[in-house]
Design goal:
The complex is a heterodimer of chains A (491) and B (437). Chain A is of the alpha+beta class and 491 residues long. Chain A has 17 helices and 22 strands. Among the domains of chain A are: 103-220, Uridine Diphospho-n-acetylenolpyruvylglucosamine Reductase, domain 3 (2-Layer Sandwich); 224-333, Alpha-Beta Plaits (2-Layer Sandwich); 339-419, Alpha-Beta Plaits (2-Layer Sandwich), CATH 3.30.70. By secondary structure, chain B is α+β, with helices and mostly antiparallel strands. Chain B folds into 3 domains: 88-206, 2-Layer Sandwich (Uridine Diphospho-n-acetylenolpyruvylglucosamine Reductase, domain 3), CATH 3.30.465; 210-304, 2-Layer Sandwich (Alpha-Beta Plaits), CATH 3.30.70.3450; 307-399, EIF_2_alpha (Alpha-Beta Plaits, 2-Layer Sandwich), CATH 3.30.70.1130. Helix content of chain B is 31%, strand content 23%. Chain B has 14 helices and 19 strands. Chain B has helices spanning 3-11, 41-54, 106-114, 132-138, 145-148, 151-154, 183-187, 221-232, 246-251, 269-283, 326-339, 368-384, 396-399, 409-422, and strands spanning 16-17, 34-36, 58-61, 78-81, 88-92, 97-101, 118-119, 155-161, 167-171, 196-203, 205-206, 210-218, 240-245, 259-267, 292-293, 313-320, 344-349, 354-360, 388-393. In chain B, the strands form 4 sheets. In chain B, strands 15-12-14-13-17-18-16-19 form an 8-stranded antiparallel sheet. The radius of gyration of chain B is 22 Å and the shape is globular. Chains A and B meet through strand 10, helix 7, helix 8 and helix 16 of A and strand 9, helix 7, strand 11, helix 10 and helix 14 of B. The structure holds flavin-adenine dinucleotide. The site of flavin-adenine dinucleotide has 41 residues of chain A, from strand 4, helix 5, strand 11 and helix 17.
């Protein structure tokens, strides 16, 4: 696995220490173990060094050293990724950005902030909150994940429906290219000069270089928020309601769906007030101007009722609203009570295909002798089937992985995508041909070669050519620290 | 077989133009060798493959509205007309997405979508002529970008024909998608230098219940700038915030004023009413007059207000600056022109820092030097405002007196490497873009 000889390692360690300081390099086996996985513990790979730079110059120097030695390197944020994206698939260096975590500048007049990549997503909203602003992309992991990781994976969240994903909020990036050169892609203005390289970098999963400064838009908090819960006896009715809402000319901030298995688990665990016998519930949030909020809510209620909702409730107070969201957000903890482990899938389908695909998901999982809970961003068609299983039972994990692959095939068949927010990383590299032709992939490879010609920057990811020394299973799904601490869940 | 015969064999003789038929397709004084009108994606691919083999550069051509943008080409080569590829391939209202071929005009696309209660929230000028592919390739936008963003916020999938004649897809048909590199972003604003866009899938929005445009007049541009800042810091959610100086306002037939702010709102009727009323109290402390309604027909003329200010323009420039300094940039720019005895007109999508300026031509044979000098001043103003500027139209002598594009520095070298990877033989629109691409 290690690409370095035993004799070379101490020499390199001293060189790295000279670049980032003695307390900025880890190479002991037990220390390296901490960085062998991300949030998807199915895959593991050991680095030779973990390096903690504190400035762009240090990142550049480390990258140049890696180039000189021809050893691979990969950027790592909080390690909450769910596709194995930050794993050192071929050994070499893990470059952790966690010590570069400052908000460098906030320009309220122009509604932009300049941040370092290791800044935790939520900390930006907290920093600008007192002035009435927030950072819109809100992945469920926002208490822990970093803006750098969000850039690389183009993260989304429940409010993506109205506000867009990470890329819609990124104007410019300072990047250390894979050869160590420092460049600015885009800047502070809305329109780029030349190709939209910042737009192209976002979502490149750490294969185009390492972001060291990020210019993001910050938004003013909305005047008013309204949250509606609609309860359905059939899941098709809930799916139809999603399209009906859109057909009435409304774009809610969020439309989340929760299925029966999940409702029951949540109610057993927390009692958030969802009816246990419902087949599905929709949690719909409107935000914006205070004026006419009632009128909009009435339209939502009417759309849900016309689609066959048996009950539609509007949160009357902030406390009630929080309770409804708790039902949505604590699904993870709830699954923990009904199953020893689960694996979350991430696929996207055209919204109108929801009823068909949800049916297929249930069939596929049942055919594998497993159970599935669905809780997901219905408004965007971004599915998150959570397959429940017991890792101690031989063969079960393999069945989960197989069911996941079949679900991805279904997403692809209906014109969807194999990832809405978690990325391809290692996990889905082999699924890329489900939606891309050889010509598509060859073109993307050439684009990658323009950024990363030697392939040293995060090798083995995104493209279906796995030749790395990654270990896979049998390993239990292990909850990420932020999950065990109750800070976040996976969908 | 000579290239023209091969092209005739691909698209049929009627769709290969030569000789006098080429006069509409002259690019900055250069007549192309031929123009070809393929009728399918496969034909586009075959045409490009033949041109590449023959070493003839290919100039993709939608409505031709932005063909004058860029460095004048060394050789006009083969004009590739995309207007026959104009089908609305798919529109599923329940998905709020549509897929269309690149040659459909924006106006035709919007009409088809509106008939089913939806629209593409992109409103570039010249919608009757500009094609979807051209608008994407030029990253054209209009006033409503204030709320709804630009092509990068709306394009979710793209099919292109590459420089070697391969058909390549990026993105997809779904609104959220992180599989593979974001090729749609790569092609937006790439001016046909990396691939020819043949099909695009876009996000749509429901047509709002109501939409209204109002004008606020100011005695000073600087006051209007303060009003823009106050508006951005308020609770209002306008869909357009356009600022015009006196000549640009006059071009739209607005009552004379040193500065006019055109503000748009959409949504439910109550929301629009409330916002128009609230706008009055936001702008009043900055010296803004009472908002007055504007006719809806003005919407589509806002983006081109500066361009349309003069019968004979001497040059046009687009400046991208921080929103907070738009009014200052306009004021300084107009002053720089005045100092050289030239008149200018300015308009801006002020809330997003997108500024357009036009210089008035003085007589038939105007000297290029003062025009170029003013443009250089404007460029410096854009840099001082934290941004960049490009000449979007100018006569050849002016274009040879100053760079059309800003220097993109280290990023520009990366752009050249991308071009070299994706179009190694320089087949697509060579030599016209940033960094000599
Ligand atoms: C409980 C839980 C809930 C989640 N919910 C969501 C959700 O709602 N929406 C969502 O989109 N995702 C979600 N995720 C996935 C994950 O949080 C996101 O992918 C997140 O963006 C990863 O950030 P990170 O800092 O942990 O990055 P890491 O996991 O450390 O790295 C992710 C990728 O980013 C690259 N990278 C990191 N920093 C940089 C940098 N500075 N420059 C270049 N590349 C870099 C890495 O190489 C890797 O490819 C969730 C994960 C968990 C564990």
């Amino acid at each position: 696995m290690a690409t370095l000889t035993a004799g070379r390692k101490p020499v390199l360690r001293r060189e790295l220490e000279a670049l980032v300081g003695a307390d900025g390099v880890l190479s002991e086996p037990d220390e390296l173990l901490v960085y062998e996985s991300d949030g998807l513990t199915l895959f593991r790979a050991l680095a030779d060094f973990i390096v903690f730079p504190t400035s762009v110059e240090q990142v550049s120097a480390v990258v140049r050293l890696a180039n000189r030695e021809a050893i691979p390197f990969v950027a790592r944020g909080a390690g909450t990724g769910l596709a194995g994206g930050c794993l050192p698939a071929e050994g070499g260096l893990v470059i952790s950005l966690m010590r570069m975590n400052r908000v460098l500048e906030v320009d309220y007049d122009n509604q932009i902030a300049v941040v370092e990549p290791g800044l935790v997503n939520l900390h930006l909203s907290q920093a600008v909150g007192p002035r009435g602003f927030y950072y819109a992309p809100d992945p469920s992991s926002q208490q822990a994940c970093t803006i750098g990781g969000n850039i690389a994976t183009n993260s989304g969240g429940p409010h993506t429906l109205k506000y867009g994903v990470t890329v819609n909020h990124v104007l410019g990036l300072e990047v250390v290219l894979p050869d160590g050169e420092i460049v600015w892609l885009g800047g502070r203005t809305r329109d780029a000069l030349g190709y939209d390289l910042a737009g192209v970098f976002v979502g490149s999963e750490g294969t185009f270089g390492i972001a060291t400064k990020i210019v993001v838009r910050i938004l003013r908090k909305p005047q008013a928020v309204k949250t509606v819960l609609a309860v359905f006896d059939r899941i098709e009715q809930a799916s139809a309601a999603v399209s009906a809402i859109i057909a009435r000319g409304l774009v809610p901030a969020a439309v989340e769906m929760i299925d029966q298995l999940t409702i029951q688990a949540v109610e057993d665990a927390f009692g958030c007030g969802y009816p246990r016998d419902a087949a599905a519930a929709l949690l719909i949030e409107l935000d914006g101007l205070a004026v006419a909020m009632e009128t909009q809510a009435e339209r939502i209620v009417a759309a849900c009722r016309d689609a066959g909702a048996r009950e539609v409730r509007t949160a009357a107070s902030e406390a009630e609203r929080q309770l409804l969201w708790k039902g949505r957000k604590s699904a993870f903890g709830a699954y923990g009570r009904v199953s020893p482990a689960y694996m979350v899938m991430d696929g996207v389908i055209p919204r109108t295909k929801l009823p068909y695909v949800l049916g297929r998901v249930n069939e596929i999982v049942a055919a594998h002798g497993l159970r599935v809970g669905n809780v997901f961003h219905a408004g965007d068609g971004n599915l998150h089937p959570n397959i429940l299983y017991d890792p101690r039972k031989p063969g079960e994990e393999a069945r989960v992985v197989d069911a996941g692959a079949q679900i991805m095939k279904v997403c692809a068949e209906v014109g969807g995508s194999i990832s809405g927010e978690h990325g391809i990383g290692l996990e889905k590299a082999d699924f890329m041909p489900f939606i891309f032709t050889a010509a598509d992939l060859a073109f993307m490879q050439r684009l990658k070669d323009a950024f990363n010609p030697r392939g040293l920057c995060n090798p083995g990811k995104v493209f279906p050519t796995r030749k790395s020394c990654v270990e896979t299973g049998p390993v239990a799904y292990r909850p990420h620290a932020i999950e065990t601490q109750g800070l976040a869940q996976r969908f | 077989m000579p290239l023209l015969d091969k092209l005739r064999a691909i698209v049929g003789p009627a769709h290969v133009l030569a000789g006098t038929e080429l006069s509409p397709y002259v690019i900055e004084g250069r007549t192309p060798e031929a123009a070809v009108r393929p009728g399918s994606v496969d034909e586009v691919a075959a045409v490009i493959a033949q041109a590449a083999e023959a070493g003839v550069p290919v100039v993709p051509w939608g409505g031709g509205s932005a063909v004058g943008v860029g460095v004048p080409p060394a050789r006009a080569g083969l004009v590739l007309l995309l207007t026959r590829l104009s089908a609305l391939v798919e529109h599923e209202p329940g998905d709020l997405t549509a897929t269309a071929q690149a040659g459909v005009t924006v106006a035709a696309l919007q009409a088809a979508l509106r008939a089913r209660g939806q629209w593409l929230s992109l409103d570039p000028p010249d919608a009757a002529r500009a094609t979807l592919g051209g608008v994407l390739a030029a990253n054209a936008s209009g006033p409503r970008r204030h709320l709804y963003g630009t092509a990068r916020d709306l394009l979710i999938g793209v099919t292109v024909v590459t420089a070697d004649g391969a058909v390549v897809h990026g993105g997809g048909k779904v609104v959220k998608n992180v599989a593979g590199y974001d090729l749609p972003k790569l092609f937006i604003g790439s001016y046909g230098t990396l691939g020819v866009i043949v099909e695009a899938t876009v996000k749509l929005r429901p047509v709002p219940d109501e939409e209204r445009l109002v004008a606020v007049r100011f005695e000073r541009l600087e006051d209007a700038g303060a009003a823009v800042r106050a508006l951005l810091a308020s609770d209002l959610i306008p869909n357009a915030v356009d600022l015009m100086d006196a000549p640009a306002g006059a071009a739209l037939g607005l009552p004379p004023a040193p500065a006019t702010l055109a503000v748009g709102f959409d949504g439910l009727g109550e929301q629009v009413d409330w916002q128009v009323a609230a706008l009055a109290s936001v702008v009043a402390p900055c010296g803004g007059a009472k908002p007055a309604p504007l006719p809806p027909a003005l919407w589509e003329r806002l983006a081109a207000a500066a361009r349309d200010a003069f019968d004979a323009p001497a040059a046009m420039m687009t400046l991208s600056v921080l929103p907070g300094v738009v009014a200052d940039t306009m004021e300084q720019g107009a002053e720089a022109a005045r100092q050289r005895g030239l008149a200018s007109a300015w308009c801006a999508h002020a809330g997003v820092g997108h500024v357009t300026a036009t210089l008035r031509a003085e007589g038939e044979r105007q000297d290029a030097a003062p025009i170029a000098a003013v443009l250089e001043d404007w460029r410096a103003a854009a840099h001082a405002g934290g941004g960049h500027a490009s000449v979007t139209w100018a006569p050849l002598p002016v274009k040879s007196a100053l760079p059309v594009w800003d220097d993109a520095g280290a990023a520009g070298r990366l752009m050249q490497r991308i071009k070299a990877q994706l179009d190694p033989n320089n087949v697509l629109n060579p030599g016209r873009f940033v960094g000599g691409i």
